[in-house]
Design a protein that fits this description.
The protein is built from 17 helices and eleven strands. With 374 residues, it is an alpha/beta fold.
């Protein structure tokens, strides 16, 4: 059964009898290094970093191998060099495989990385979990591992992926999807969400929470729609409709009838609706909604204290309706969106408040740390 966010803890040979799981992180040319490094650090930290910080015995939950296609170093985005431990052919056992990004020219990268495809199919057939990050999801799709399964990818390449791989059940609004031992994550830093999801899946919530706290990152997010830059209109050459769009951008908070808009465009109402939909891809009412939601997001990002104030500024009177509409477009309530995207604070009070039970939340300096983690 497809699972796009509900966490299930699965034994995988009873989590290797409470031992360690083998993770292979593949390095690819031209990608964002963080999509490889992030998972490496999360898996290395699970069961170790929190324990070290608290003076407890370390209990590593994963063994991480770093492999490239041929065992040679790769060059990531911004010419950053990454050195693997081995080639993918050297891997003798793995429970989890992470495929990172490989640049935005996905098809060119796939052509240059063709040995990866049968290797992924082989290990998935042997029972390994295979996970793709951002555009790295394309390798899973090209290998046929996503046919008939749920998947996600970065919003920016979603239209390309949906067109090229129509057999995949795309759920682009999701940050992380899981379906029959194949995982996908949305954006670049969703590699952290994906990795913590896997830590929680195999090691339980407490280990994942400790890992997230020790790295000072959030637990996995559910949806990426709130992070999208909403496209208000596709390019078109209809000058009259463009003039109406310009006017609406300045007056989106006003209630204006279709008849008034059609009069502004010099058309009849029915002809205006047809022309507007053809040019922009949206009906006028839906277009105004998108303008208002975009304005609401900007206000919330500035930290506007009252949801009622945001609602009024963008032209709505019914706060309940605004909350419902905002959540439908972004996947979050206005308060959740403001909490996540408002101007960042450097106050550590929230972290102190989440200290483990029995620990002091006061700013008293901690005891000296051990000399170094093992």
């Amino acid at each position: 059964m497809a699972n796009s966010w509900k966490r299930r803890q699965v034994p995988c040979s009873a989590a290797r009898a409470e031992g360690t799981l083998d993770v292979t992180v593949v390095l690819l040319d031209g990608g964002y290094a963080s999509t490889s490094i992030g998972p490496i650090e999360v898996f290395h930290s699970a069961g170790t970093l929190w324990n070290w910080l608290h003076g407890e015995d370390e209990k590593p939950r994963f063994r991480v191998r770093i492999a490239s296609l041929d065992g040679k170093s790769v060059t990531g985005f911004y010419a950053l060099g990454l050195v693997p431990q081995c080639s993918i052919k050297d891997i003798r056992h793995t429970d989890i495989i992470i495929v990172p990004t490989s640049g935005w020219d996905v098809q060119d990268r796939i052509a240059k990385s063709s040995p990866l495809l049968p290797w992924l199919r082989k290990w998935h057939a042997k029972g390994a979990y295979v996970a793709g990050v951002c555009t790295g999801v394309a390798f899973l799709a090209e290998a046929g591992l996503l046919d008939g399964k749920c998947a996600t990818t970065h919003l920016a390449v979603a239209h390309v992926m949906c067109a090229r791989y129509p057999k995949v059940h795309w759920q682009i609004e999701q940050f992380v999807t899981e379906d029959r031992r194949v995982m996908c994550s949305g954006g670049i830093y969703a590699s952290i969400d994906l990795s913590l999801y896997l830590v929680e899946k195999f090691c339980g919530h407490e280990v994942a929470l400790q890992c997230a706290r020790s790295l000072l990152v959030s637990m996995p997010r559910g949806r990426q729609s709130g992070y999208a830059v909403l496209p208000l209109s596709r390019p078109h050459d209809d000058e009259r409709i463009r003039e109406v769009e310009d006017w609406l951008r300045q007056n989106f908070d006003r209630d204006v009838s279709i008849e008034r808009l059609a009069e502004r465009a010099g058309m009849g109402a029915r002809n205006f609706i047809r022309r507007f939909k053809t040019a922009t891809g949206r009906l006028p009412g839906a277009y105004v909604q998108m303008l208002r939601i975009s304005a609401a997001r900007e206000l919330l990002e500035r930290g506007t204290p009252s949801i009622q104030a945001v609602c009024s500024k963008i032209g709505y009177e019914d706060v309940a309706f605004f909350r419902s509409l905002f959540k439908r477009h972004t996947g979050m309530t206005p308060a959740e969106y403001r909490s996540r995207f408002a101007a960042m604070s450097f106050d550590r009070g929230e972290l102190m408040a989440t200290a483990p039970r029995g620990e002091s939340a006061s700013p008293t300096p901690p005891a000296p740390l051990p000399s170094s983690p093992r």
